[in-house]
UniProtKB/TrEMBL annotation:
Cross-referenced Gene3D superfamilies: 1.10.1660.10
Species assigned in the record: Streptomyces endophytica
Record domain HTH merR-type: where: 20-88
Organism superkingdom: Bacteria
SMART domains (alphabetical): HTH_MERR
Stretches of the chain forming a coiled coil according to its record: none
Protein name (record): Helix-turn-helix domain-containing protein
InterPro entries the UniProt entry points to: DNA-bd_dom_put_sf, MerR-type_HTH_dom
Amino acid sequence: MPTETPPHTTDKFDDDDYPAYTMGRAAEMIGTTPAFLRAVGDARLIVPLRSEGGHRRYSRYQLRIAARARELVDQGTPIDAACRIVILEDQLEEARQLNETLRRAAADPSQPTGS
């Protein structure tokens, strides 16, 4: 009889914020070095969680953010500026989503705003 995986275990695979990747694996996935990941951490673009042993762990969301910063750095943007650009892009996207939600709510007052 096969054993079932507890539901909370499979949920982690679908969670973009679950810190599933070690520094080495994360660097490999986005085609950079651990030093780059430390640098974007020092710039406070991403803050990796720490394992019980103190090792950095990254989520898929954090890797997407770091990969965007890497694109900018590869184009010649200084790392601090790249991190600031990525933060501003992220804030702009959140504002756009909020704006769209509010527009829909204004067009149809019977819909909840999701706040």
